[in-house]
Amino acid sequence: MSPDTPGTGRFAAIKEEVASRARHVVYRPKDLGALETTKLGVVAWGNGGCSEDAASSRFHLLEIASHGYLVIASGRILSGPGAPPREPRPAAPPAAQGQLPPPRTQVSDLTDAVDWALAENQRAGSPYFGRIDPAQIAYSGWSCGGVQALQVAKDPRVKTLVIHNSGMLNNGPTNMTGTSVGKEVLLTLHTPVIYIEGGPKDIAYENGMDDFKRIAHVPAAIANLPVGHGGTFNEPNGGAAASVAVSWLNWQLRGDAQSAKRFVGEDCGLCKDTQWSLERKQFPAAGSR
Predict the structure, then answer these.
(1) What is the mean pLDDT of the chain?
(2) Do residues 35 and 9 make contact, with C-beta atoms less than 8 angstroms apart?
């Protein structure tokens, strides 16, 4: 078992289960006092497979948290360090013939995570009291969790989405998240969005590329790294995809001009990186958001 990593950001990160959030795992800077005047952004995360293992992408989420974010993943710690011995989990309810089994997490877990974070920001005695910037809210997720994130894109509190190895199915609505949803959900986007895909070998590649082509009313980007559907989640500090996700969050939520350089302009960082291919539209001028 690989140990948890603290991330490469300024604030060494940890993950923990919190008594007041039985359905979530929190990733955060270990020393909240070290934030000083830095306010935490909030990233609500949907797991691959819509599973309840909130530690399944732990390296990726610890990396984001180390850059001054409160990341809240649906579920519990069911793998890796901190996973206690548990009774065998009950089998998922049987699926109807020809249908996917019901998901183990709900779309509402994402909005519930943001509700909790914003309430903690205002609760005297909370470790997060006054430490969160309510203007820095993002939804993100991997595969089925990315579809969950798209389903809550209409939330007026959200400022950006980061969708990993995912996209709405091209052959019609899907009920993989427990509710039937199709391409019409893309019309609810009101913020910039980036899709981070695994290239043509990624089973979500065609879906994500089609989503990108359909989005015509908000700034959108799609970045491909040819690693397949598994992305770089199991690489140290979440690998290259986590680095891109952090840069996007820093640009969109904090207006960080250095991070913007990876995406904006003909000479952008990802434009010159031979590992990546990047497409963009409705984008702002260099350095703005």
Answers:
(1) 93
(2) no
